[in-house]
Amino acid sequence: MRALIFFVVFIAVVGVGLSREINKVLNRPAGEHATALTAAARDMEPPSGSSGGSRTVTLNNDGRGHFQVDARVDGRHIDFLVDTGASMVVLRESDAARLSIFPRASEYTGRVQTANGVAKYAPVRLNRIEVDGITVRDVAAAVMPDDALKVNLLGMTFLSGVKWTHERGRLVLEQ
């Protein structure tokens, strides 16, 4: 009996809350409905950089469990190792120079622990990184000296802009 009373009280409370929300929507001035609908439609649009539908890219590992990718960074081809353990995209100085990025010595303000010890990096922003049609814009990145980094890393500042899964030796990116 207590359970039934609790259930009826619960339904009444939920019903009152819902009726208030419905009244708010129904009693809005006409212009606010259009704004709410526009905002809802905008929220349903595909992510920027996508061409209307979702885009999927499947990367196969190189046999050693690594995923290599040729990405376009601000229009230029750059090779990367996909690294889910790297908190950001990291470029070697030589590849950053190909993008016309030349950090001054005073701009190497960040420090990071690498397998080879502590290394300095210069924080930068990249306008766009594209992997086979999947595009992430305004990406935080780091530039490191070539002797501190053997390969460019496609880290989480790119990967957090896409949905990614790892299954059976494949890395699937979706946007």
List keywords for this structure.
175 residues; alpha+beta; seven-stranded mixed β-sheet; 4 helices; 29% helix; 37% strand; disordered N terminus
Topology of helices and strands:
Blueprint: H1 2-26, H2 30-44, E1 56-60, E2 68-73, E3 76-82, E4 89-92, H3 93-98, E5 110-114, E6 117-131, E7 134-144, E8 153-154, H4 156-159, E9 163-167, E10 170-174
Parallel strand pairs: 3-8, 4-7
Antiparallel strand pairs: 1-10, 2-3, 2-6, 5-6, 6-7, 9-10
How is this structure best described in words?
The protein is an alpha+beta fold and 175 residues long. Helix content is 29%, strand content 37%. It has 4 helices and 10 strands. It has helices at residues 2-26, 30-44, 93-98, 156-159; strands at 56-60, 68-73, 76-82, 89-92, 110-114, 117-131, 134-144, 153-154, 163-167, 170-174.
